User: Fold this.
Amino acid sequence: MAQFPPTVAEPGQDGTLVLNMGPQHPSTHGVLRLVVEIEGETIVRLRPEIGYLHTGIEKTCEAKFYQQVVPLTDRIDYLCPMTNNLAYCLAVERLLGLEIPPKAQWMRVLMNELTRINSHLVWLGSSAMDLGAMTVFLYCFREREDVLRFYEMVSGQRMMSSYFRIGGLALEPPLGFFEKVKKFADRFPENVDEYEGLLTGNPIFTRRTKGIACLSAEDAIALGAGGPTLRASGVDIDLRRDAPYTGYENFKFKVPLRTEGDVFARYICRVEELRESIGMVQQALAGMPEGPIKADAPKIVLPDREKMKTQMEALIYHFKIITEGFGVPAGEVYQAVESPRGEMGYYVVSDGTAKPYRVHMRGPSFANLQSLAKMCEGQLIADVVAAIGSIDVILGDVDR
Amino acid sequence: MPLAAPITNIEELKSHPALGRLMAWNASVVQAAKFDREELTIWVEKDAIREACALLRDSADCPFNYLADLTCVDWYPSEPRFEVVYHLLSIPHKERVRLKVRLDGSSPAIESVTSVWPSANFFEREVFDLFGVRFTGHPNLKRIMMPDDWEGHPLRKDYPVEGYR
Assistant:
């Protein structure tokens, strides 16, 4: 195991210059403050200071019914709302012992992979812009707009979708939805070629990323890094393949792996993941089963509007769920899913009542941020920007 | 899929690599174990947590080398009040285990596992900040989410959701 210094030195103690990067800094992707100690242009120590975006979501969850927590989960990692929804819903469904119909599962995979594409596109655009490649940003946001339109089609919301609910999905996808996604999926690989054409062989980009901010496999595990940050260091783990959830076992995909552990390796891993994700979208479209989108559990899943107008029981159940919630058998579940940034875990503890006793989110960005100091120490200050970009940190996910 | 009844008999659960390893090392550190909803929970003696974690990390047949999560649950007003929860993952074997340590409500303190996994640093600071559990041997035990001059620990159950006014 790697050795790390046991104590954290006070800033500036050995004659170094202390520099604050952030919390308002365009390259920190949110409100992240880095206390950087430099000697000349070399970084001696780097310490992330977080908490500027802390909203106490975990505390709020304890005061809500189980179904009311879903919209809160969107706001944690705001670039992948559906992944958060999914992790929370899966955790509660496991607590309840609820079975989800196949169509809902396939839709969840489809939307999840679109979410991954959305998140990776924002990452690619913004981190390339940090390194001076302006055009990629515009191209990426062009395609991201298409994905946001799909969000809007299924849920009525572009970003905070809350589309997955406990027991299934909120709504049936609208007419023409699958055709539009198909059209997008057919065209998207060419778009990825376009981004790669601008970056992969670009001498400026490669010189700013190759051999920069390296992280060994040993350090990556010890520091709790996840997702592409971990896989770029050569650690072969992807929860979609290794611990399949919501029907991922039916899909074929490769897990991109690199061994260099530098910024460029992380870039390649994510770009490859874009291609794999679009492959999974194609598979989900081709094999989309027919059937209901909600589990047959009237005490937990809200009834259809139509039924409420014609059936007395449906109206009663609706009233009961809205006013009293539903009890969840006592117990605890840790549900981990593979978010675009790594392992996103929801730890839900139930005491048998209609409100969760404790909801804890294991944010992948929170864990990834710890590896930043190891990556940057001894490097040049200009490379910090590349390093922050490469771990794809989302401050909503860090601070919760 | 109806819920299966939880298994709490330690002898029945010994086949799990984490529990088997801990029992072979020192059976007295295992207070209880439970297998519920496909997840194994082991309650570990408070004083042995760091050694138990180091043992599981270095275990030859199934090393739990990745600290996935570290958090805390407040069972106020019952005693022991706090449960510190460790979620471990074995990357080579894709196995998971949950360790739990029970702590008393009056000045809760436990040994830090930052020497086993440096990644515990932020997680322990978060638990310290939001629950007021002290981690002895932690290199930089300061508030992480709340401002440094904040009073109280927001995730404790006796802390009102709206905060103190």
